[in-house]
Specification:
The structure is a homotrimer of 213-residue chains. Chain A is built from nine helices and no strands. Chain A is mainly alpha-helical and 213 residues long. Chain A has one domain. In chain A, α1 packs across α4, α1 packs parallel to α6 and α5 crosses α8. The longest helix of chain A is centred in the N-terminal third of the chain and has 24 residues. Chains in contact: A-B, A-C, B-C. At the A-B interface, α2, α6 and α7 of A face α1, α2 and α4 of B.
Chain lengths: 213, 213, 213
C-alpha cells in the first residue's frame, strides 16, 4: 500500500530536510552556539519530526539511519553554511527563511500523512503524524535553544496549514488518486496556505486569563 | 496477567486524561500561546506520560493511536475550553486545577504501575513506570512552555505521592488482590496523599550549594 | 559480533553512569530543585543518553530496565549525596566535576559506538550513536533544568571529543582489535582529548549574525 520511494519522493524529502536544517543553523547562530551546537540543532530541526513520527509508529530502522547519506548531507550543509557565515557571504534573515521553511512544512506534512495512512492508521492519527513530521523538528529545535516553540506562540497559522494539507492527502487517497499526485497536492495546499498566511498576515486567536499575572 | 480493560479502567483513564489535558490548556493560556499551542500543550500533558511509558516499554500501538477517540476527546475539550475562556465563563485558577490534577496523578500512577507489572517488570521499574505515566505529561508540558517542571521544584510532594501509590499497587498485586481493587486502592493512596500534602502544606527538603551563585 | 559483557565492560558502564548521575545531582542542587527533582535530574543525566540511543536503534529491553540494580545504585547515590550536602561534608564544584564527567564522556562514547557497530550500523551512524550516548544525558539534564545545553554553547570541545573517540573505535574494530582494547583505547582517546581541551583551554569557533540582535 505504501508507494515505492520514487525519484520525486526522494527529491521532496531532501529539499524539506535541507530547508529545515538551514532553519536550525540560523537559529543556532543567532543563539551564539558553537560549531557543535550548530550541527546538533541543524540535525534536530532536520530529523526531529520524522524521527518522532517513526518512534511513535514504531517504524525502524529510522530513515536517516538506513540512508546515512542524509546525515552526511546535513553535516556538509552545516560546514558550508558556517564557512559562508564566517566569510560574511551569507546572512540568513528571518524573512529569507520563510520560503524554504514553508516548502519543508508542506512536503513533510504530506509525506508524513501518507506514511501513516500506508500503515492503516485512522485518518485523524495520520493527519496528526503529518503535523508532527512537519512541525516537531522546529519544536525540538526551539526547545534545545531554550525558547517557547514559535509554532505555538507566533500567532500566525503554521501547524494549522500542515493540518489542512494532511486532510487533503487523506481525502485524495480515499478518492483513489495516484500516490505521487496525492503528495504533490497535499504539499502544495500546506505550502500555499502558509505563504498566504504570511502574506495576508492571518492571525490565530489567542487567550488570556485575566488577572492572572 | 494484564487485566482486561473493564469499564472501570476506561472511565479512570478518560478522567485522568481529561484532567491533565485541562492542566495543559490552563498553562498554555497563561503563557499566551495561540490556539494551536493550546491544543498541542493539552495533548502533550494528556498523552505525554503514557506515551513515554509505552516507548520505554516498547508497547505498540500507542493507546491514543489505537483508540483515536482519545485524541478527538482532547480536541473537543480544547475547543470547548477556548470558547468558554473567550466568553469569560471559565476562569481556571491554579487552585481549581488541584483536584482534577490530584485525581489524574493517582489514576495514572496506579494504571502505569499495573501495566508494567503485567509485562513482568521488576517492582522498582514498575513503580517508576507508574511515576513516569503520572508525572511526565506535566513535565513535558512545562518543558514545552519553557519552564522548570513544577514537579521538580515546587517543594510540595507530587511525584512522591505517585511513588507511594505505585508501591501500594505492587504490594496488593503480590498479595493476590483483584486487579480492579489494586488500581482503585493504589490510585486512592496517591490522590489522597497529594491532597493531604496540599492541605497540610507538607514540604520536601531542598538543597542549596553555599557560595555557588 | 557484539562482545559479551565482561567485568571490564560492566565496571566501565557503572563508573560512567555514576559520574553522570553526580553531574545531575550537582546541577539540580544548584537550581534549588527539591529531593524529587534531584533524583529525576540525576536519573535523566545518567540514563538519558543510553536510553535515547536504544530507542533510536530499537534495542529492548532498555539496559536499566533489564538490570534494575542500575536504578537502585543511582537512587542510593542521590540519597548519599543529598545527606552529605545537608551535612555540608560535600560541596561539589564545577571544577571537581570535570574529571568524572570526562571519564563518563569517554566511556559512553566508546561503548555506544561499539554497540551500534555490533548491530551492523554504518560507521557514521555508529559514531553518532556514541556521541548521543555520551552527550544526550547532559543535554536532557540541561533541558529539564531550563538551560541551553552546555554541550552546545560553552565553546570548549566536548561532543567533538566523543566524536573523535568514536572514530577510534570504528578504526580499531575494522583493524580487528580485541573488543576490550577497542573500548579502552576509544574511551581513553575521548577522555584525554577532553582533559587536554580543558587544560589548554581550546575553543570551538562560534558564529554571530551581525546586526541581528
Amino acid at each position: 500500500m505504501l508507494p515505492a520511494a520514487t525519484g520525486l519522493h526522494i527529491g521532496i524529502e531532501v529539499a524539506g530536510t535541507l530547508a529545515f536544517a538551514l532553519s536550525g543553523i540560523v537559529e543556532a547562530a543567532r543563539k551564539k552556539l558553537d560549531a557543535v551546537g550548530v550541527c546538533v540543532v541543524a540535525g534536530v530541526a532536520a530529523f526531529g519530526g520524522g524521527t518522532l513520527r517513526d518512534v511513535l509508529l514504531d517504524r525502524r530502522p529510522l530513515f536517516w539511519i538506513e540512508q546515512s547519506w542524509y546525515v552526511w548531507s546535513v553535516l556538509l550543509l552545516c560546514m558550508a553554511a558556517m564557512w559562508l557565515m564566517r566569510a560574511k557571504h551569507f546572512r540568513p534573515t528571518q524573512r529569507s527563511m520563510q520560503w524554504p521553511d514553508a516548502l519543508g512544512l508542506g512536503l513533510f506534512a504530506a509525506t508524513g500523512t501518507q506514511i501513516a495512512l500506508g500503515l492503516h492508521m485512522p485518518a485523524l492519527i495520520s493527519v496528526l503524524m503529518g503535523v508532527i513530521t512537519a512541525t516537531f523538528g522546529g519544536v525540538l529545535r526551539d526547545i534545545v535553544c531554550n525558547e517557547i516553540p514559535t509554532a505555538f506562540h507566533d500567532h500566525h497559522p503554521y501547524a494549522v496549514c500542515a493540518f489542512a494539507g494532511g486532510w487533503v492527502v487523506v481525502l485524495l487517497q480515499w478518492l483513489g488518486f495516484d500516490p505521487d499526485w496525492v503528495v504533490a497536492l497535499g504539499a502544495a495546499t500546506a505550502t500555499l496556505l502558509r505563504l498566504a498566511a504570511l502574506h495576508f498576515e492571518w492571525r490565530l486567536p489567542t487567550w488570556k486569563l485575566d488577572g492572572d499575572d
